[in-house]
Structures are given as structure tokens and as C-alpha cells.
């Protein structure tokens, strides 16, 4: 049985060295919260101060008995897990995540970026989100996701040009939609 322990209360704070890493689909997920990320993982850059939203959504259908019209069983008909965040750094990696590798051209000399907007579905990616919820604790959220929604951009001279990106999970062969690792890095 759990006991009251304030040192186990956490807040989803980003690491100051970066928090969201992206790799191509099929990249091996880290096995724990402290494992080194492989070279395939790219740091995405700054994220808006609204942070990362992780959400689960499900639907069920009730099976009712004729006798008494009672609910006697429930069947899950849908389940998804999603992550959403707003990259606010303007770079080729963010453009490719938003529009796809083949829809972004980067000039080798000047670094200028051309992103071609379209409505096609993009290839899934592996996402790792690293947080430091309190001193001595590291959390890592990892999974394979596919971009399902691009939010609006507000061009009013007071906000970043970032747009909210929402990704839906793609379950692995075990039906797992995301792995949440927690490591305690020092003893108190």
C-alpha cells in the first residue's frame, strides 16, 4: 500500500537542454529513462510554453440484457493516445516533421527552407519526450506516432509562428501505445 510521500509528487517540466526528440519510424525506442538516445534521434528545438499534452481517448459500447434492460457487459470499440505540442523554432527538422521530408527543400548554400503545404498523411515517426519533473527524477515518454492535425498559425507580430501539431499513437506488436519510463537518479 502506498504511503503519503511528497517527494513522489512531480511536475512535467522540460529539460533545459531540450525535451522533444524525433526519429524515423522503426527506430528502436530507448529501453529506460536514462539510456542514451541513438544518432537517429534529432532534437526538435524550442517548444511553446504550453508544453506537451498527452491524451487518451476511448469509446465503449454497452451490451444490454433483454431481461430488465440492464448493462451486462462493455466492449471497447475505440482507443487512441495522442501527444500534442507546438514547436516554435523555425528550422528544417520542424518543417519536415510538419510537412514530410519529400515536401521540404533546404538550400545547401543559404539554408533557406521551402515547405510545400498539402493534405496527404505523413509517415509515422518515433517521438521521445524527456522531462525532469523534480530534482533526482527523470521521465521519458516514447512511442511511434503519426501526425493527424496541424493547428493554426497566428501572424499578428506578437506570437511565435509555431503551429500546434497533434500525433496519434500507433501501437506496437504488443498493443502498447506509449512507454512511460521513470528513473530516480539520486538517493535522498
Could you explain how this protein is built, in words?
The protein has 188 residues and is mostly beta strands. It has one domain. 4% of the residues lie in helices and 44% in strands. Strands 1, 2, 3, 4, 7, 8, 9 and 10 form an 8-stranded antiparallel β-sheet that branches. Strands 5-6 form a two-stranded antiparallel sheet. A hairpin with a 6-residue loop joins strand 3 and strand 4. The radius of gyration is 20 Å and the shape is globular. The protein starts with 19 loop residues before the first strand and ends with a strand.
Helices and strands, with pairings:
Blueprint (H helix, E strand, L loop, with lengths): L19 E5 L17 E2 L3 E18 L6 E17 L4 H8 L4 E3 L6 E3 L9 E10 L2 E14 L14 E5 L9 E6 L4
Antiparallel strand pairs: 1-2, 1-7, 3-4, 4-9, 5-6, 7-8, 8-9, 8-10
